[in-house]
Design a protein that fits this description.
This protein has 385 residues and is α/β, with parallel strands linked by helices. The chain folds into 2 domains: 272 residues, Alpha-Beta Barrel (TIM Barrel), CATH 3.20.20.105; 90 residues, no CATH class. 43% of the residues lie in helices and 17% in strands. The strands form 4 sheets. An 8-stranded parallel β-sheet has the order 4-14-13-12-11-10-6-5. A 3-stranded antiparallel β-sheet has the order 1-2-3. The longest helix is centred in the C-terminal third of the chain and has 28 residues.
Length: 385
């Protein structure tokens, strides 16, 4: 397939296979590994795109399911495409809408052609299949678009996972046939197979047999226990071509990111930074912190002393705790700025470590901090009363 994307690996960690690379798209260059903030409706919740740019983001996500329902992918096309419509000149990735559609368990019906579903807001009936998903994403006009897949939730039986995987493979062929903008939009295929290694192997072989600009690991963090997620990522990632970008879908905690990079993943996304911020929680070198805790009320230190985001440079935990407790919109904005910046910075630090030949040491530091946080959390849970 023709590609509007180029991928150049700069350094590889011999210990783990972690990579640093340059990803070139029609709307700009992306340095990987990279965290991609999610703007579901064409916006990161509580943030302007000027604020998003100041976090250091090089690419953002938009969701084709939501944009199709409102305001309509045809309207986005008439506006000149997603970049013009939202006022973001840098790269954009759209997911296919498959995950959102399949999340509507009580509101959808799967057929070989696609999925009939009801709008979760209005109840109006719609249909999206691989052909329709390509039309929607072609109209939206993102730099990177995703194949329409069947994302089975866990726990899933072997037969359920295999049926969804086989359907994903058939739909990928239809997506390739109906993708019209290959000169400006790059289509990524998605590997499925749930927690079953033989299915993951089959899916990786089938999907990568089609020459696409990049490939994704899908169907993780959809109900599995954390060790199962890590095992799937560790096992599946090396099955993807080394010379193409690798994308792990829906992952976005500090540990998730570090572990994905360690496995050789280049790209990852998650709604967690802004979602947690809206609930008063932030990432920090001390672990996840809730600004609702009483200890924050008189704490005049920043969220994280090593963070150079606008929030940490200008505001204390005490002030942010006040905003959260007062339910001020500014609280969600300031915490979102920090959380997005924090995850972007973690990916950048990993990249620097890979290039410097020090990723093993970097990862082991992250791993020790993660294990300490897990131990502390366990101790707190086991406290009597």
């Amino acid at each position: 397939m023709d590609s509007a994307l180029s991928f150049e690996i700069e350094a590889v960690c011999p210990w783990s296979g972690a990579r640093a690379a340059i990803l070139r798209t029609p709307h700009g260059v992306i340095e990987t590994p990279v965290f991609m903030p999610v703007g579901t409706n064409g916006t990161l919740k509580a943030l302007t795109f000027d604020q998003v740019e100041r976090t250091g983001a090089e690419i953002v996500l938009a969701n084709s399911y939501h944009l199709y329902l409102r305001p309509g992918s045809d309207l986005v096309a008439r506006a000149g495409g997603i970049h013009s419509f939202i006022g973001w000149p840098k790269p954009v990735l759209t997911d296919s809408g498959g995950f959102q559609v399949f999340s509507l368990t009580a509101l959808r019906k799967i057929t070989e052609e696609g999925v009939f579903f009801k709008d979760h807001r209005t109840g109006r009936g719609h249909f999206i299949g691989p052909k329709e998903s390509m039309k929607i994403q072609n109209e939206i006009g993102a730099d990177i678009i995703m194949a329409f897949d069947d994302c089975v939730k866990n726990p899933a039986t072997y037969d359920q996972a295999k049926a969804a995987m086989d359907r994903t493979h058939r739909w990928l062929e239809t997506c390739v046939e109906n993708h019209k903008n290959t000169s400006v939009q790059s289509l990524f295929g998605i590997v499925q197979g749930s927690i079953y290694k033989d299915l993951r192997t089959t899916s990786a072989q089938t999907v990568t047999a089609i020459d696409l600009p990049g490939y994704a690991v899908g169907g993780v963090a959809v109900g599995e226990a954390r060790p199962a997620v890590e095992e799937v990522v560790m096992y599946t990632t090396p099955l993807l071509p080394a010379h193409k970008p690798r994308y792990l879908m829906g992952i976005g905690t500090p540990w998730d990111i570090a572990y994905a990079i360690r496995c050789g993943i280049d790209m990852f996304d998650c709604v967690s930074p802004t979602r947690l911020a809206r609930h008063g929680s932030v990432f920090s070198s001390e672990g996840r912190l809730s600004l609702r805790l009483s200890k924050c009320i008189n704490d005049f230190s920043p969220i994280d002393p090593d963070c150079d985001c606008y929030t940490c440079k200008n505001h204390s935990r005490a002030y942010l705790a006040h905003l959260v407790r007062s339910k001020e919109t500014a609280g969600g904005t300031l915490l979102s700025i920090h959380n997005v910046t924090y995850l972007l910075r973690q990916a950048k630090l990993a990249r620097q470590a890979i290039i410097a030949g020090k990723f093993k040491e970097y990862f082991e530091t992250i791993e020790r901090a993660h294990n300490a946080e897990e131990t502390t959390a366990s101790e707190l849970i086991d406290l009597p009363g």
